[in-house]
Here is the input.
Amino acid sequence: MILIENAAVATVDPHGREHTTGYVLVGDDGRIAAVGAGRPTAVPAGTRRVDGSGCLVTPGLVNTHHHLYQWATRGLALDETLFGWLTTLYPIWGRLDAEIVGAAAGAGLGWLALSGCTTSMDHHYVFPRDGGDVLAAEIEAARSIGVRFHPTRGSMDLSRKDGGLPPDHVVEDTDEALAATEAAIDRWHDPSPDSMLRIAVAPCSPFSVTTRLMEEAATLARRKGVRLHTHLAETDDEEEFCRKQFGCTPVEYAERVGWLGDDVWLAHGVHLDDSAIAKLGATGTGVAHCPSSNARLGAGSARVRELIDHGVPVGLGVDGAASQEVSHLGAELRQALYTARSRGGPKAMDAREALRLGTIGGARCLGRADDLGSLEVGKLADLVMWRLDGLGHDGIDDKVAALVFGPPARVDLALVGGRPVVERGELVNADADTLTERARRAHRRLMDAG
Ligand SMILES: [Zn+2]
Here is the structure.
């Protein structure tokens, strides 16, 4: 067992319980055995004790939108809109292979863990014909870091010749994409409550996927009991594409193809009118809010206050590292707060609500709220101990405010199912220099092949 003591604790439970000085006791089953103020009444012999003085313990952060492969193409198309950025990068991504994706995923997930993330999804939708098993490569990378992983089997089947945005050579045949998606679920998906690996179905976006693939992907996911994810309402260009191609808004299109429901979470949701927000709320459709990526691409800012007020499950996402080079989930707490306030004033979001988005909100998007997202007895021991007594944070007495308003905090300890993945700001299961070197080689080989 592990006992974290003498720490500030923000449980993010339904009552918002916090302890100025408290403890979390983690059982050998990888779940939380006790959490509270002061000291625990009984600590079994042999328990590892961790002194949390100067630290805040929160639930581990949940990343609800990412493209790990993009670590290999950071720093490109720096001043483009989404469509300009995509058309620059598609030809490069067409040369991806399993080694490049594995290297990028290792670097991306290692960096995420160091930023306080204990569960991440990944949206992978580029499957070059001779690229090898790229999904297996990123799953192996997640195992090597130790984070909980929800990769999605993405797809694109609408290329330029059919009116889509991607070039012909990066899309798949519709039936092949569906068959490969079903095979990925059969091979990898673990529905158990302790699951470290779940698959979701994720056609890429309205402008890169046919209507038939959207509809049949939804049918497949529901037949298999897995979740659905896609990009929606990210930019004005997409809105214009949907109006021209389908005669409706992106959310009306999603409704038409069976893509609203509590088993669906959508990336971005930036350009939503009142009726779209009401539809998402009424159907329980989630949104992965990616404020830094939206700002980097100049896509706009999501109406996150209104989404929350309509009961929409909202989580945070760093999005791919090529559209948001920081890729730091801890930093996204502040970006979400600032984005809400830049739209709606200083009352639009507080530090605790930002933390809820990054934890329980993300767990709801991924369908894991029963087991993740808050520090409650019986839930999985996925937690982060943030160091807040250094130069950057000391003197901010409200520790949740220090975490969200202050600079990104060092992760002193991150547990996934009670197992350490970060200790004293270092990865436990992998070496950051090795990850960097492998990713550097992958990036160079990808760029030089063009
Ligand atoms: Zn994305």
Observations:
- The chain has a mean pLDDT of 97.
- Residues 65, 67, 123, 231, 267, 319-320 surround zinc ion (CB under 6 Å).
- The first strand starts at residue 2 and ends at 10.
